[in-house]
Design goal:
CATH architecture: 2-Layer Sandwich
CATH class: Alpha Beta
Number of strands: 7
Shape: globular
CATH superfamily: HIT-like
Structural class: alpha+beta
Bound molecules: guanosine-5'-monophosphate, zinc ion
Distance between the termini: 38 Å
Oligomer: single chain
Strand order of the largest sheet: 1-2-3-7-6
CATH topology: HIT family, subunit A
Largest sheet: 5 strands, antiparallel
Length: 123
């Protein structure tokens, strides 16, 4: 897709701090992080928004969702429960959709946001 910043990142026409890549997805650090850890999981295929997805995208969306905790762990904000049942870590996942959803880049992406609090939007 011409003039799409995430298509250009996916095809390496512009650089990013890449943390993951496979045939379908890339993940890279957000250029303007809202928290100590903030990365984006992005399909290589150009899909404008979550509202443009249908049943053909179920596997892709599932893959994105399953990648989030794996990469969060690698990046230092994994969720875990210790032997005493004490939970720690964790992260927020977010799809902004459309103008009222705060979407700025119209190429589907999942935000993964975490790290020690406080950070923007979190107590
Ligand atoms: P949206 O508001 O569309 O859900 O989020 C778009 C995100 O993409 C924002 O958090 C913004 O900081 C990030 N972003 C925009 N342009 C670039 C870029 O060129 N490189 C990277 N790494 N992130 C970007
Ligand atoms: Zn695109």
């Amino acid at each position: 897709m011409e003039n799409c910043i995430f298509c250009k990142i996916a095809t390496k026409q512009i650089p990013s701090k890449l943390i993951y890549e496979d045939d379908d997805l890339i993940a890279f650090h957000d250029i303007n992080p809202a928290a100590p850890i903030h990365f984006l999981i992005v399909p290589k295929q150009h899909i404008a928004t979550l509202a443009d997805c249908d049943e053909h995208h179920v596997a892709l969306l599932g893959k994105m969702a399953l990648l989030a905790p794996r990469l969060a762990k690698e990046q230092g904000c994994g969720y875990q429960v210790d032997g005493q049942g004490q939970a720690s870590g964790g992260f927020k996942t977010l799809f902004n959709t459309g103008p009222d959803g705060g979407q700025e880049v119209y190429h589907l992406h999942m935000h993964v946001i975490g790290g020690p609090k406080p950070w923007r939007g979190q107590r």
